[in-house]
Specification:
506 residues, mainly beta, 6-stranded mixed beta sheet, 5-stranded antiparallel beta sheet, 2 helices, globular
């Protein structure tokens, strides 16, 4: 078992037995919009015209996902577009509602060459109308992929290289004035460490604006590596983002192999970067500090590493709370009040030039066992407060004031509602917050549970909570089986064909 998995399991156990403390009275009313059935939501939801739009990451061996819509007030969800084997596979990044009203997004993988192939190519960019018509592939990422073994930080890893980036996994952003969409891939490019790109909303003029430098053998990088969140277009007209690896500072993780020997692995703690919209003047504006590490007393327990002043491994995109002030989250680092724990993540802030913002410290909040931890998804700014999600335990929604005080646990998820929020929150036009969970919810079967789409209202309004667990509607009207049933039908078809072939041979 890797250290990362071991630590995750340890923290999960701690979370199950810890008690979340509500520091103030919750201000939002939770309701389930609908529960997924045999299809898993991916990338959260966005709202337009009182309608939520979202994606399903995959629906069968031959269909690579779907786009759905549902009223913000609840009701029957509709599948408005089904990805075919030629469109791309697994739209996990979430959608953008463009200034022209179209939905823009990406698939993590390219078109499937055969029913049995996982993917062909490094992903696609697309747009589609809100009724599911006028689908257009804007860009197909290079399918000429080279896998190489590299040594970084004392471990052997596989880097996948290509010309223009691989596996776009974060939402696009738009500069409506120029007509460009901007995004990142968290791998690929000529060094395998990701790229920043742009493309016109009509699919023309695709450009790689920046290719991240290769990691050094010790795990460091002058620029950071592997973008870990969507871009932000700042008030100053520059693009801002984060990387989860690389940077100037390392953590050294020391684990005992046996009673006499140890192994040391290293990893850069991540960066914040910026660049102009044409790709010029790339700057690493902040390197997250190294993490403390002390050797465990025995070889079977993972080190509780992670304590530092500001956090490490930024996990999501940035939000600009006022002109020139950026706020984001990390999944590790910080200084929990319990001295026996490693860092559980932070909320940090800095000026766009990388200097401290507002105080003498970068850290607004260090998560601990009373707040929940492991923040996921970008924070949302609403009425002078920041709202976000912690993934620990069943998951929770929190809010804080812009100075880091006034923490509120707004909602703690239950299994009946849905657990494990799989993406960040989105702000609807009426001021409500919306999102999705990955598991739990009203629809359970022998194949598992698939989560819910939910709404958090500041006005006490509740969605109707549609939970018909057998039928979704299609955009053309009428009933249709939940898309996930196609997995089972395809599997039965494959088994039947193989059986006939076996009988014909024997």
């Amino acid at each position: 078992m890797t250290w990362g998995l071991s630590q995750a399991l340890l923290y999960l156990c701690l979370g199950l037995f810890g008690t979340t403390v509500t520091h103030a009275t919750a201000t939002l009313t939770y309701s389930t919009v609908f529960s997924f059935d045999l299809s898993k939501g991916s990338g959260g939801v966005v709202e337009a015209n009182n309608t939520l739009f979202g994606t399903l990451s995959n629906t069968s061996l031959t269909y690579g996902g779907a786009i759905y819509k549902v009223s913000l007030d609840g009701g029957v969800p509709q599948t408005i577009f089904q990805f075919s084997s030629t469109d791309g596979y697994s739209p996990i990044a979430g959608l953008l509602v463009g200034a022209d009203g179209h939905l823009y997004g990406s698939t993590m993988y390219g078109a499937r060459s055969t029913v049995f192939s996982l993917s062909d190519g490094g992903g696609t960019l697309f747009r589609v109308s809100q009724d599911g018509t006028d689908y257009q592939t804007l860009h197909r990422f290079d399918s000429n992929i080279t896998n190489i073994a590299v040594i970084t930080g004392g471990v052997v890893a596989t880097n996948s290289l290509n010309a223009d980036g691989l596996y776009p996994s974060f939402p696009l952003i738009e500069d409506s004035g120029s007509g460009y969409l901007y995004g990142v891939t968290n791998s690929g490019g000529v060094h395998g460490t990701g790229v920043v790109f742009r493309v016109k909303t009509n699919g023309t003029d695709f450009q790689v604006l920046h290719t991240f430098a290769a990691l050094a053998t010790d795990g460091s990088s002058t620029e950071g590596a592997f973008p870990s969140g969507p871009l932000l277009l700042g008030h100053d007209g520059r693009l801002y983002g984060v990387t989860s690896h690389g940077g100037a500072n390392l953590y050294s993780l020391t684990n005992k192999v046996d009673s006499t020997s140890t192994v040391v692995t290293k990893r850069g703690t991540g960066t914040v970067y910026s660049l102009n919209k044409d790709g010029s003047d790339f700057q690493t504006i902040f390197n997250f500090p190294a993490l403390d590490d002390t050797l465990d007393a025995d070889a079977n327990t993972p080190d509780l590493v992670g304590r530092n002043d500001y956090g490490a491994f930024p996990s999501a995109g940035l939000v600009e709370t006022s002109a020139g002030v950026l706020v984001g989250t990390t999944t590790d680092g910080g200084k929990p009040t319990d001295q026996s724990l490693g860092g559980l993540g932070t909320i940090y802030q800095l000026h766009t030039d990388g200097t401290y913002a507002g105080t003498t410290s970068l850290m607004l909040l260090s998560f601990d066992m009373t707040t929940g931890y492991t923040p996921t998804g970008r924070l949302v700014l609403k009425n002078g407060r920041l709202y976000g999600i912690n993934a620990s335990g069943n998951g929770s929604v929190f809010s804080i004031q812009l100075d880091g005080t006034g923490f509120i646990s707004e909602h703690e998820f239950s299994y009946a509602e849905g657990v494990s929020p799989s993406s960040g929150l989105a702000l609807a036009s009426n001021g409500d917050l919306v999102g999705v969970t990955a598991y739990g919810g009203a629809c359970n079967s022998a194949y598992g549970s698939y989560g819910s789409a939910y709404r958090l209202s500041a006005n006490g309004v509740m969605a109707s909570g549609y939970s018909n667990c057998t039928v979704y509607a299609t955009s053309s009207g009428g009933g249709a089986m939940s898309q996930g049933w196609l997995w089972g039908l395809t599997a039965l078809l494959v088994v039947s064909l193989l059986r006939k072939r076996w009988l014909s041979v024997h």
